[in-house]
Specification:
By secondary structure, the protein is α/β, with parallel strands linked by helices. The chain has helices at residues 3-9, 21-34, 52-60, 74-86, 104-118, 133-144, 153-156, 162-171, 249-262, 287-303, 306-325, 331-343, 374-377, 390-412, and strands spanning 12-16, 37-44, 68-72, 122-124, 149-151, 187-190, 195-198, 228-235, 238-242, 245-246, 267-273, 279-285, 349-356, 359-366. A five-stranded parallel beta sheet has the order 3-2-1-4-5, sandwiched between helices. It has a five-stranded antiparallel beta sheet with strand order 10-9-8-13-14, with helices on one face. A hairpin with a 2-residue loop joins strand 9 and strand 10 (245-246). 36% of the residues are buried.
């Protein structure tokens, strides 16, 4: 269906709505351009902002009360998206903890659920035509509702500058905060897992990130001079308690965020490869996630068999790429998830960590399922499961092909 056909056929659209200026402009643009009924959906993913203003803004722009949906998704977000991802120790391109990527499939899923509930025939998002989020949203939409119509205003309209956006807002009586009239120095996406900052002052990768950009972490150099010691308890690969106190998934991540912020943990200045083909520079703050990753690897170090642990590390980059590229609801991601979840059957126990001036270090780990055998690793004589003399045959068998190659080189004079 082309753009003009869509504009004649769409009757009701569910918009991912933050209540900010851009999505408010999109809301009014949908009404005026498509002539359709707009339903707004605002998700609380722990971004740290009041959501009631979004409701009031939607009402002000003519949205019926029954067409305004605001949902607290913090527990579902951490339980069903963040935790499954962390079971794999997931990092994209060796560093990025995927804080934005993992939130998009949940938002998209809820939009589709609301579309089904209210009988909407279309969904819309505010992602730009250069970024990854347009892909993540739309792959989710199509996976869950193959016949849905997708509207991406940034790929359709001619509001190509800040000036044009402001003019449109003024023309349609959309309130504009004083600090929104000028070009923002950088853009921010935030949820309970992270805050990411991109654009403008961050676009030159040779220039340091200005101090005022950071919002989730204190300056590591100004963090407490005394380290913070904590314990994190795991059950089947998921964190369940801090310092012996059981917490819900969202509450636990919020507590780790608080501890990480205070100790300056989780800053990442990254140039990454976007799925759409370009490189971009972003600054990510993931205080709780950085601690969680270290803790999870710590408990796995004593509970996972070498073969399983190494296979997980081989699968992880593919799994990370699938999430980054928007394929959360793909069969291959679900296949990998099944393997990852199977590996976590005995990943239960307690990890002790030291948090200090931007660093997190595992300093202790214990589990009733531990595979660590002190009798085996000791240098003292008497270990019955290991005979030192067996190593000679083991080494010779593993060296057989290397010796054969060496003999050939010698014969050829190489």
């Amino acid at each position: 269906m082309n753009q003009q056909d869509k504009r004649g056929q769409v009757k009701k659209v569910v918009l991912a709505y933050s209540g900010g200026l851009d999505t408010s402009i999109i809301l009014k643009w949908l009404q005026s351009t498509y002539g359709c009924e707009v339903v707004t959906f605002t998700a609380d993913l722990g971004q740290g902002e009041e959501l009631e203003p979004a409701r009031q803004k939607a009402l002000l722009l003519g949205i019926k009360p029954e067409n305004i949906f605001i949902e607290d998704l913090r527990e579902e977000f951490v339980r069903d998206y963040v935790f499954p991802m962390f079971r794999a120790n997931t990092v994209y391109e060796g560093q990025y903890l995927l804080g934005t990527s993992i939130a998009r499939p949940l938002i998209g899923k809820k939009q589709i659920e609301i579309a089904e509930k209210v009988g909407a025939d279309a969904v819309a998002h505010g992602a730009t035509g250069k970024g990854n989020d347009q892909v993540r949203f739309e792959l989710t939409y199509y996976a869950l509702k193959p016949d849905v119509t997708v509207i991406a205003p940034w790929r359709e309209w001619d509001l190509t500058s800040r000036t044009k956006l402001i003019e449109f807002a003024e023309m349609h009586q959309i309130p504009i905060a004083k600090d929104k009239r000028g070009e923002a120095p950088f853009s921010v996406d935030a949820n309970l897992l992270h805050a990411s900052s991109e654009g403008k002052v961050l676009e030159d990768p040779s220039v340091d990130v200005p101090d005022y950009v950071y919002s989730r972490t204190d300056d590591p150099e100004k963090a407490p001079d005394k380290p913070t010691i904590i314990t994190v308890d795991f059950e089947k690969g998921d964190a369940v308690a801090i310092d012996g106190k059981t917490l819900s998934p969202a509450s636990l991540l919020a507590k780790l965020n608080e501890l990480g912020k205070r100790n300056g943990i989780g800053r990442l200045d990254l140039v990454e490869n976007r799925f759409v083909g370009m490189k971009s520079r972003g600054m990510y703050e993931t205080p709780g996630g950085t601690i969680l990753l270290a803790a999870h690897r710590g408990i796995e170090s004593i509970t996972l068999d070498r073969g399983a642990a190494h296979l997980k590390d081989e699968l992880m980059p593919k799994y990370a790429e699938l999430i980054y590229n928007g394929f959360w609801f793909s069969p291959e991601r679900e296949m990998l998830q099944a393997a990852i979840d199977k590996s976590q059957e005995f990943v239960t126990g307690r990890v002790k960590l030291k948090l200090y001036k931007g660093s997190v270090a595992v300093i202790g780990r214990e589990s009733k399922y531990s595979l660590y055998d002190q009798d085996l690793v000791t240098f003292e004589e008497g270990a019955v499961a290991y005979d030192h003399r067996d190593a000679a045959g083991f080494i010779k068998l593993n060296a057989l092909r290397l010796r054969t190659l060496g003999q050939r080189k010698k014969k050829l004079g190489l």
